[in-house]
């Protein structure tokens, strides 16, 4: 058979050139779950190579992975677990949300936002993980004509979320040396994650035209509004259950 990663002809269960499994299939939810958790949580050389590829060329790298080049990127679920742990640590360590916003929000209304923002720091990984199926749903819905199923959109948005969380690493030196500028730093980080999302979608869906840009804008608006509602619902459920 021909390897779907390096296109080498081979016999057996694994490619003798790149090591990819001969059983590589198109993503379905069942196949995705099995492949994501079949191996142990090791930090392999592929972790750092994946970070580089997703940083420099996210759309094309994710597309190649989904289309069969499975040894090119670190498995998305494992990548999410590692980046989620890092993001949660950094959010709590630098009080990335609460110190930046509590005073400003308190001036705008009588509400006390401290509880929700502390919740956002403590449950940063959960919040980011819950955004993935939301964004996957809308990218699947709006770009259904591209032929990617929901699970493939889930993989796409999982990698995007991973890199958005890992983006916090770039701001650690600024947070260390300029702690009084957390607000502006957070704004820059937020804009950076938004632009990264747009860039990845443009390349992945080959949407470099006015219609594609408009479609991506609709996806982001719908996704962020839904995410906002879901986050607040979870916060209310957790706070209501805290007294039990």
From TrEMBL:
Residue intervals passing through the bilayer: 79-97, 123-143, 155-175, 181-202, 214-238
InterPro entries cross-referenced by the UniProt entry: DUF3667
Pfam families listed in its UniProt record: DUF3667 (PF12412)
Keywords for this protein: Membrane, Transmembrane, Transmembrane helix
Domain of life where this protein originates: Bacteria
Name recorded for this polypeptide: DUF3667 domain-containing protein
Organism in which the protein naturally occurs: Splendidivirga corallicola
């Amino acid at each position: 058979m021909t390897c779907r990663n390096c296109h080498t002809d081979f016999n057996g269960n694994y490619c003798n050139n790149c090591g990819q499994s001969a059983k590589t299939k198109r993503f379905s939810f069942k196949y995705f779950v099995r492949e994501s958790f079949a191996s142990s949580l090791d930090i392999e050389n592929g972790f750092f190579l994946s970070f580089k590829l997703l940083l420099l060329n996210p759309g094309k790298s994710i597309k190649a992975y989904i289309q069969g080049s499975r040894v090119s990127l670190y498995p998305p679920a494992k990548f999410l677990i590692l980046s989620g742990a890092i993001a949660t640590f950094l959010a709590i360590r630098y009080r990335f949300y609460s110190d930046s916003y509590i005073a400003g929000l308190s001036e705008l209304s009588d509400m006390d936002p401290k509880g929700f923002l502390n919740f956002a720091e403590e449950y940063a990984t959960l919040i980011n993980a819950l955004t993935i199926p939301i964004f996957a749903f809308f990218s699947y819905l709006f770009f259904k004509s591209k032929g990617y199923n929901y699970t493939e959109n889930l993989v796409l948005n999982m990698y995007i979320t991973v890199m958005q969380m890992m983006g916090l690493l770039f701001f650690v030196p600024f947070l260390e040396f300029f702690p009084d500028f957390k607000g502006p730093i957070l704004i820059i980080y937020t804009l950076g994650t938004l632009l990264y999302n747009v860039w990845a979608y443009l390349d992945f869906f080959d949407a470099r035209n006015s219609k594609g840009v408009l479609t991506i804008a609709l996806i982001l608006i719908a996704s962020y509004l839904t995410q906002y509602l879901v986050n607040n619902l979870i916060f209310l459920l957790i706070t209501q259950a805290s007294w039990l």
